[in-house]
Amino acid sequence: MAAAEAIGAALTTAVAFAGFIAGVPALLPLAVALGVVPAVVVRAVPGTLVALSRTRALGDAPALFGRLTLRLRVEPSLERAVTFAARSGDGALAASLAAHARDARGTGDSGLASFAAEWGEHAPWIEQAAALVVDAAEAPADERDTGVERALAAARSGVEERAAAFAGEIRAPVTGLYAFGVLLPLALVGVLPAARLAGVNVGIATLAVLYNLLLPIGLLGAGVWLLAERPVSFPPPRIDATNPEVPDRRRSAALLGVSAGGVAGAGCTLFLPWAAPIVAAGIGTGVALLWLFTPVRAFHREIQEVESGLPDALALVGRRVDDGVAVERAVEAAATALGGETGALLDRVSGRRSMLGLSVEESFFGRFGALRHLPSPRAHDAGRLLALAATEGPPAGDALVAAGDHLRELARIERETRRELAAITGTLSNTAALFGPLVGGVSVAMVGRIPADAGGRLTGGGAPTASTLGPDTLGPVVGLYVLLLAAILTGLATALERGVDRSLLGYRIGLALPTATAAYVAAVVAAAAVL
């Protein structure tokens, strides 16, 4: 911390001295920002990263309790249920439960209570759900299912209530972000013509520092704070570049982006030369991001279709297993009955099992398993439950049906949460991609309609100075701010609604940048022709 403060002080002194010697007052705000940013980063970044990681981990809690209670339905052994829930999970929450279970070996304890105490500090409902699981494990056989249902209901209601509370709490911060990050800066651009008429000549360097550095840094900081406050998330599947289902388009995306940006910029020079760099940057970056992440987005949709059919698949298989049908035959029947992506997945499982002689678990997760390259936590949970049912037989039938109902309820909560957040973040997305660029473009065109020496005539001044604002000087500054606004606000709205996912953020920003660029240029041209 002391080092960060020393670096900040040195930067402030150096930049302020350079501004004083060069006679550039615009460097003074930059000097202050450079002095503050290092200390703020050192203080805030580690805690923020921990909060984001914890939020993502807590998103797995409902699924973990689903596995825990399903195993408890099959066999009333809390220790085995905890072990199964921990080993069948892949995230930080499952790893934490596994560590607590190892520490509790030989003590007569399952480790669930200490696990709940650790995570209950951040999500109190985890302690309640864990206590209900313990009660269910100790309850008589005829009351166990009721206790298990109460535990699952506590886990779901905890997620639902916290998500609903966050949707209400976030309205004021998002409104403030919208007002001070969008409305006020764009309104100041619109006031510049009146300021020039009054003789107030604002330097372009000052505006560049404010709009292209300080405001974007402030928006990023506010966005990261909002994301850190976001409660339990429903994170999208993580799809990395090594997944064989997604083609590697990094080189072609860079080439296509440069080509598209060059052509768009060259075309812009024919009617608005000063906007050519803005058009090249906005169009080129947007096209590159779209080309890079479109296959990932399509894979996301396929995963969503698979997950949407999982509750019905578990219910169909569970009922047949409860009737005494083997899991292998029940999976084949469910594949035929369901159709769609979920049916196709189960069909691949059945086909590989019969052709290669694999077990149910191997046909899901083995070297040739159907889920090996499908990064869906819910699909993996369903596969593990089906593999468990293959070893336990009819007693697991009711548990599979209950697991399907649990997944259906989680999907409902996720839809409602995203719907509530989308109603709040939709304004940010629309403003970033369309309304903000339109207002900025009209404001730049209005500046161009004021005579260059208007301020001097009204105040008795002399000839206009070199720092007089015009569309060719103000336009690039506002245009860059518009692009930064489109990227930052679109990314924030997407992350608040869907969770932090690189591919989804890249795809949404790739859509917003060309839209914002076209809206800005069209507004400048149209307003200049009309005014």
TrEMBL record:
The chain crosses the membrane at residues 177-198, 204-228, 278-294, 421-447, 478-497, 509-530. It comes from the Archaea. Coiled coil: none annotated. Keywords: Membrane, Transmembrane, Transmembrane helix. This is Flp pilus assembly protein TadB. It comes from Halolamina pelagica.
